[in-house]
Write a structure and sequence with these properties.
The chain has 328 residues and is an alpha+beta fold. The protein has a domain of 103 residues: 2-Layer Sandwich (Enolase-like, domain 1). Helix content is 28%, strand content 20%. It is built from twelve helices and twelve strands. The protein has a five-stranded antiparallel sheet. Strands 9-10-11-12 form a four-stranded antiparallel sheet, with helices on both faces. The longest helix has 17 residues. The radius of gyration is 19 Å and the shape is globular. The structure holds iron/sulfur cluster. Iron/sulfur cluster (SF4) binds next to helix 8.
Amino acid sequence: MTPFDYARASSAQDAVAQARRAGAKYLGAGTNLVDLMREGVETPDRLVDVSGLSRRVEPIDGGGLLIGAAVSNTAVAEDAAVRADYPALARAILSGASAQIRNMATVGGNILQRTRCTYFLDVEGAACNKRQPGQGCDALEGFNRGHGILGVSPACIATHPSDMCVALAAFDAVVHLAGANGRRHLPLVDLHRLPGDTPHLETVLEPGELITAVELPPQAVAARSTYRKVRDRASYAFALVSVAATLEMAAGRITDVRIALGGVAPKPWRAREAEAALIGAVPEQSAFAAAADLALSAARTRPGNAFKPELARRTIVAVLSDLAGAER
Ligand code: SF4
């Protein structure tokens, strides 16, 4: 591991000041970053520990929740307000990683975790444009069963590995940021970049900008929500496909619906065309299937992940049918 120095931040302002130099990285629990440092993928020369900051889940005046960036994944999943008002978020978190990792991992770290593409992690043996711009992408012709089908590019087909972020995307979560130029708020769905020809640039964060909290806006529709994860084994596996969805109905018609996908794209993927097509529709399988077709219409596959569009379609239909109490 490359030598680095360590500093513990006393506040968000202090963290930003301490991380001002190039080569500095924020450290939450380190459940992803330290692994990457051991592998030589990440080589920061300073770690600014922010794990002691923002460790509360608080109600917001007027409704909604503010979740501190250093709150553990377990604490979010066990929070009574999260379970009652945003159940898909609790389900998504509990479907990820192991209990031990969830007990340690922070909300901010979960959002900024790096892809688990095998070639990205193989510093010695694999070409990877994300790790080394211009090097090539061994996943294109290699083992790409878990790779992306939406929003990908010829330079990179990696997926964002988070379950939590898929639910946050469905709930229109807003990320609170602090940086050298002050504080700002950003919709979570706008935080991560698509790879294009610069897959090494993964977010729109400015250098040294820190996630301080995640805001969940008040949404009546969020209470009728769920998360389903399809994976190769029952636990401790990343999603092949996942779906977070909410559904609201009145007088036999759909009045509000949110659909977000995981395991298929370089970022938590909101299926807005599918949502728009469902507003006013009768909540039945044919409508859900048509919406799922729309959600996957831009899919681009590789030989190893050619099964994903159909798997995603079926998962969307199943989740929406469950929420609607509809026959499948
Ligand atoms: Fe690297 Fe992306 Fe290709 Fe994986 S898919 S090897 S992360 S460029």
